[in-house]
């Protein structure tokens, strides 16, 4: 591993790869060519630690973690690898010799956007942490040809375009053409005595592509194994020879459809059969693969739980329960009961949402037609659940199959040894709501693991200014032991330190302002407060409440332009699921409000609204370090955890938020005086549902009422006055997420924020304390919790060299 740190070697490696891997000379190389050459050079340095990690895992026969996830929202890989290997200075220097900018090269890389939002990004942070901690692990997912759609705005309306991250050579992965598994669909079950055999009518092949995931300083390197769908039969020559070219190509096209696109869907329902096929496709391939690996060193499959822990990232891989039971019993000959016990002791399930529309449920008919054997096994699992329920004498009646649908949450729960929520509040609500019956039957099963974020990408990588200040002040250990940030807490009272801390914030803001000027043709002042809400657009996240507050603030400024305003720039960023009409209407309204405010000379620099299109991981890396205020304003009880909230706090932004998800724990850690909490609690939200009338709340709030009237009369859509009526219609008919009820509390909290920001010293103190006291939100801490409480696994500690 020594070679990694040898200065100078990178220069030669880049030059070598530019010639030998890319086939270019320095004078003809484009930015992309340089990126490919640098990527190869950096990738080479991961290989030795990667092999070594594998060898050590085999040598010690260590237990492995398999993280099954439909989504891995990695973002850019090159810069992250450079950071983890601490090669930035070398890379910068090596490229500079050719007059090439390191920033241009890393920014040339398209994001690997194999995910929609929080759940997918969490999976990526977990991979990073498992490598950092030396936990032997595989991430298993789908190698989508097209990741999350690209978003643009046409007159304020969201337009979606196919994303194409693999168009240029993607040289982080290794294609494993020999690592192939058959994945069946449809057909019938042939039963002979007690033996059942599934005979599928269609077979698609899953082929592996491996990406090494290097941990901090390449102490350990794991693998992300993504499956790509390939046809069983490459090509049908007969129809081709008859000139029926389309027909000849059709079977291959159909097979490849399975890994073609990521469902651009955060919580609504879509093209059912294909999604179910995707879920089974990657789950089955992953299970076949891990069983093969287990069997190379072990004989008795009943010992599987001692060497393997499988984590199901939400219910998307929940078919793992019946599929593992099928493989263990139908294929490897265990009895059903042994297979069930083995599977259950191996599998664990994380729940990420309580929203009913995001809880997966498949029609029994659909399940039976695509996975007939699994449907039979699901019924047997349901019988076992029924027996446990009866034994428990709890009087509850949870079932997996109910009203002709398979409830995947109940299936996942029943097949798992441990089930976890993603924040303390969310876990409590799981026990009280969706899983209350199952919790009574299995009171030991649910536990909490509050989410976290990787400090490598979300501080060390994205905020070099702050990184350097921290290194200088408290040393470098914080990168892999984030709670050491507490050591800067006393410096919140040191004016010189505060000054440096805020100068870094100011630099980050200036960089963002330059980007906005260049890319959005809008001038914003870095002296204004940067107030940022970035996340998927969803009614429960209440971007609408923020938009209304923005409009109300503009009204107040117009009325009294010479009052003492705290200048603000409000940033919005996020995509709406293409089929989620109400969310898309909100995007258009925000863009119209932005247009109206940004062109109003009376408002000027007191308020600006910026909504950059195509929010993604890379944009987040620029926005978060530049934030003064972090908007975390979901209806209490609806945001399972949030992880953006943690990234902001870590980078010294102050939160305005409800007592929802992990905000509750952020408040506990940073202290109630360093956060702006407002609005109803989860319990109050429940209580307010009874007899809720939106209009009553609007009538009581002159500020909100004025904005609603403006929207209604076309103030933000002159020439098309009814344009935003659907937003109002929905709000008045069904304000399920209680925008109206929380509006005044939000407005008041924002005015407190104005006052807070005006006091520069007090604000800087809060900002420093947010960074100092957010160390607990490292995904390293989260993963240590999973390792100890769920997987029963040791980290690298005590095992080095
Ligand atoms: C099945 C389909 C409809 C579906 C697809 C994706 C359902 C849900 C999802 C994604 C959910 C998700 O991203 N949930 C988020 O997970 C984060 C990580 O735990 C949380 O921080 C966040 O609060 C939660 O909304």
From TrEMBL:
GO molecular function, one term: 1,4-alpha-oligoglucan phosphorylase activity
Record's keyword terms, sorted: Carbohydrate metabolism, Glycosyltransferase, Pyridoxal phosphate, Transferase
Keyword Amino-acid biosynthesis: no
Gene3D superfamilies tied to this protein: Glycogen Phosphorylase B
Cofactor(s) of this protein: pyridoxal 5'-phosphate
Catalysed conversion reaction: [(1->4)-alpha-D-glucosyl](n) + phosphate = [(1->4)-alpha-D-glucosyl](n-1) + alpha-D-glucose 1-phosphate
Taxonomic superkingdom: Bacteria
Enzyme Commission no: 2.4.1.1
Principal EC category: transferase
Record keyword Cytoplasm present: no
The family this protein is said to belong to: Belongs to the glycogen phosphorylase family.
Physiological role: Phosphorylase is an important allosteric enzyme in carbohydrate metabolism. Enzymes from different sources differ in their regulatory mechanisms and in their natural substrates. However, all known phosphorylases share catalytic and structural properties.
PANTHER family linked: GLYCOGEN PHOSPHORYLASE, GLYCOGEN PHOSPHORYLASE, LIVER FORM
Protein name: Alpha-1,4 glucan phosphorylase
Organism from which the protein derives: Ruegeria atlantica
Gene: glgP
């Amino acid at each position: 591993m020594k070679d990694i740190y040898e200065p100078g070697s990178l220069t030669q490696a880049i030059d070598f790869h530019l010639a030998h891997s890319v086939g270019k000379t320095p004078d003809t190389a484009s930015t992309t060519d340089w990126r490919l050459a640098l990527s190869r050079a950096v990738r080479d340095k991961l290989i030795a630690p990667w092999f070594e990690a594998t060898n050590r895992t085999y040598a010690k026969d260590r237990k492995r973690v398999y993280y099954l996830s439909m989504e891995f929202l990695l973002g850019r890989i090159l810069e992250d690898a450079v950071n983890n290997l601490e090669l930035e200075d070398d890379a910068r220097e090596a490229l500079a010799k050719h007059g090439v900018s390191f920033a241009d090269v890393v920014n040339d890389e398209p994001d690997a956007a194999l995910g929609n939002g929080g759940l997918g990004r969490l999976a990526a942070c977990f991979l990073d942490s498992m490598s950092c901690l030396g936990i032997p692990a595989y991430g298993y997912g789908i190698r989508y040809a097209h990741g999350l759609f690209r978003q643009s705005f046409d007159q304020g309306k969201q337009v979606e375009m196919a994303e194409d991250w693999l168009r240029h050579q993607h040289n982080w992965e290794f294609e494993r053409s020999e690592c192939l598994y058959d994945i069946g669909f449809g057909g019938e079950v042939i039963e002979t005595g007690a033996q059942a055999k599934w005979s599928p009518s269609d077979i698609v092949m899953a082929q592996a592509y491996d990406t090494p995931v290097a941990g901090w300083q390449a102490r350990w390197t794991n693998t992300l194994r993504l499956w790509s769908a390939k046809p069983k039969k490459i090509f049908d020559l007969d129809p081709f020879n008859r000139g029926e070219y389309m027909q000849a190509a059709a079977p291959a096209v159909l097979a490849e459809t399975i890994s073609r696109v990521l469902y651009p869907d955060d919580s609504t329902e879509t093209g059912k059969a294909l999604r179910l096929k995707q879920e089974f496709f990657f789950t089955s391939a992953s299970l076949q693969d891990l069983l093969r690996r287990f069997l190379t060193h072990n004989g008795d499959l009943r010992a599987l739980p001692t060497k393997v822990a499988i984590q199901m990232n939400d219910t998307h891989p929940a078919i793992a329960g019946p599929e593992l039971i099928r493989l263990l019993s139908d294929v490897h000959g265990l009895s059903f009961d042994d297979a069930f016990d083995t599977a259950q002791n191996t599998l664990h399930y994380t729940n990420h949402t309580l929203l009913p529309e995001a809880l997966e449920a498949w029609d029994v008919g659909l399940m039976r037609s695509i996975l007939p054997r699994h449907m039979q096994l699901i019924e047997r699992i349901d019988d076992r659940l029924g027996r446990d329920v009866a034994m428990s004498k709890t009087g509850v009646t949870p079932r997996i199959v109910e009203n002709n649908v398979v409830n995947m949450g109940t299936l996942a729960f029943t097949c798992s040894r441990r089930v976890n929520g993603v924040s303390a509040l969310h876990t409590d609500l799981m026990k009280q709501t969706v899983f209350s019956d199952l919790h009574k039957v299995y009171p030991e099963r649910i536990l909490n693991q509050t989410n976290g974020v990787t400090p490598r990408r979300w501080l060390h990588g994205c905020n070099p200014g702050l990184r350097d200040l921290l290194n200088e002040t408290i040393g470098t250990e914080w990168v892999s032991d984030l709670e050491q940030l507490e050591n800067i807490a006393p410096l919140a009272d040191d004016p010189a330190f505060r000054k440096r801390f805020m100068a870094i914030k100011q630099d980050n803001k200036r960089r963002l302002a330059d980007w906005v000027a260049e890319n959005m043709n809008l001038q914003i002042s870095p002296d204004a407060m940067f107030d940022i809400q970035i996340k998927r657009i969803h009614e429960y996240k209440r971007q609408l409440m923020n938009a209304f507050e923005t409009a109300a603030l503009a009204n107040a400024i117009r009325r009294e332009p010479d009052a003492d305003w705290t200048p603000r720039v409000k940033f919005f960023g996020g995509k709406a699921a293409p089929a989620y009409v109400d969310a898309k209407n909100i995007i258009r309204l925000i863009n119209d409000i932005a247009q109206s405010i940004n062109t109003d000379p009376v408002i000027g620099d007191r308020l600006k609204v910026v909504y950059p299109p195509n929010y993604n991981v890379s944009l987040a890396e620029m926005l978060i370090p530049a934030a003064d205020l972090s908007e975390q304003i979901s209806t209490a009880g609806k945001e399972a955890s949030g992880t953006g909230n943690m990234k902001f706090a870590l980078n010294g932004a102050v939160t305005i938020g409800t007592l929802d998800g992990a905000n509750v724990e952020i408040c506990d850690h940073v202290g109630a005086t360093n956060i702006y909490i407002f609005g109803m609690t989860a319990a109050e939200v429940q209580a307010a549902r009874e007899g809720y009338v939106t209009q009553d709340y609007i009538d009581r709030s002159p500020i909100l009422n004025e904005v609603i009237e403006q929207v209604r009369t076309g103030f933000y859509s002159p020439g098309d006055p009814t344009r935003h009526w659907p937003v109002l219609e929905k709000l008045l008919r069904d304000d399920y997420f209680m925008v109206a009820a929380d509006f005044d509390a939000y407005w008041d909290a924002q005015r407190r924020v104005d006052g807070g920001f005006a006091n520069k010293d007090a604000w800087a103190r809060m900002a420093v304390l947010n960074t100092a006291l957010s160390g607990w939100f490292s995904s390293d801490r989260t993963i240590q919790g999973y390792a100890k409480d769920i997987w029963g696994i040791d980290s690298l500690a005590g095992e080095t060299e």
